[in-house]
Amino acid sequence: MTDLSHSPQGGLPDKRQVAASFSRAAESYDSVAALQRKVGAELLAQLPASCEPQRWLDLGCGTGYFSRALGERFTASQGVALDIAEGMLRHAQPLGGAQQFIAGDAERLPLQSASCDLLFSSLALQWCADFTAVLSEAERVLRPGGVLAFSSLCVGTLQELRDSWQTVDGFVHVNRFRRFEDYQRLCAASGLQMASLQAQAEVLHYPDVRSLTHELKALGAHNLNPGRPGGLTGRARMLALLKAYEQFRQPQGLPATYQVVYGVLRKD
Ligand SMILES: C[S@@+](CC[C@H](N)C(=O)[O-])C[C@H]1O[C@@H](n2cnc3c(N)ncnc32)[C@H](O)[C@@H]1O
């Protein structure tokens, strides 16, 4: 994840940085997105059986994998794929799935009020500092009876990497995530009805730290800021990081925990 110790927006990087980073990752993303596939498939499985949208939105569509899944599931519907990263949209659009591909921000949706029946968003909203704005936009854009289904990440995600950096230089090198209780509180206050909200841990294993950080970079969520102060040289800091992370090693390899939040909300 991008180094956030000096970032605005309460610990999230600037939106232009996010868009540029994901645009750069558009070609490599799919090759390393196994967890993202699993989480999105789980979110699809959580859609209410009664959900038959005329128009759906894949919010933070990335390479469009789930836009295509939604297009296949709701064959008679109109689909919109939206992302803040134009490079992602350039990659996704030729692959189809949705009828429209739009550049936009989840906190300020460029869509008319009451224009969608389903907002599907997998692993994008952790990048939005103002989750209240996201929920309020969802409420505005949904038609009555419409559903917001999202997956996101909460505190505890990449905790091993965070703790390892803490040992090295005491600085924050990993994205700050909202607490699960904040998701609960903000969803409860949103005006949407909460059908379900839960968190589930997913643990991935890597042979070494470089495999993890290369994967984060290929996903567009890179870390390891080279410019950090801290007294040690770049190489010394890296060696210290590798050593610190080794304390977490398990028989399967070095663990990286993701705390995944799943939410399904409905507009009355
Ligand atoms: C981890 S990818 C997930 C992509 C896709 N949903 C999937 O599951 O494969 C996160 C996506 O969210 C997008 N994103 C980040 N912040 C956003 C925002 N404020 N509005 C819209 N999209 C955003 C990124 O550009 C990126 O394509």
From TrEMBL:
SUPFAM superfamilies from the UniProt entry: S-adenosyl-L-methionine-dependent methyltransferases
Catalytic activity, reaction form: malonyl-[ACP] + S-adenosyl-L-methionine = malonyl-[ACP] methyl ester + S-adenosyl-L-homocysteine
InterPro entries the record matches: BioC (IPR011814), Malonyl-ACP_OMT (IPR050602), Methyltransf_11 (IPR013216), SAM-dependent_MTases_sf (IPR029063)
Assigned EC number: 2.1.1.197
Entry keywords, A to Z: Biotin biosynthesis, Methyltransferase, S-adenosyl-L-methionine, Transferase
Start and end residues of each Methyltransferase type domain: 57-150
GO terms (BP aspect): biotin biosynthetic process; methylation
Pathway(s) served: Cofactor biosynthesis; biotin biosynthesis
GO molecular-function terms, A-Z: carboxyl-O-methyltransferase activity; malonyl-CoA methyltransferase activity; S-adenosylmethionine-dependent methyltransferase activity
Function summary: Converts the free carboxyl group of a malonyl-thioester to its methyl ester by transfer of a methyl group from S-adenosyl-L-methionine (SAM). It allows to synthesize pimeloyl-ACP via the fatty acid synthetic pathway.
Family, per entry: Belongs to the methyltransferase superfamily.
Designated name of the protein: Malonyl-[acyl-carrier protein] O-methyltransferase
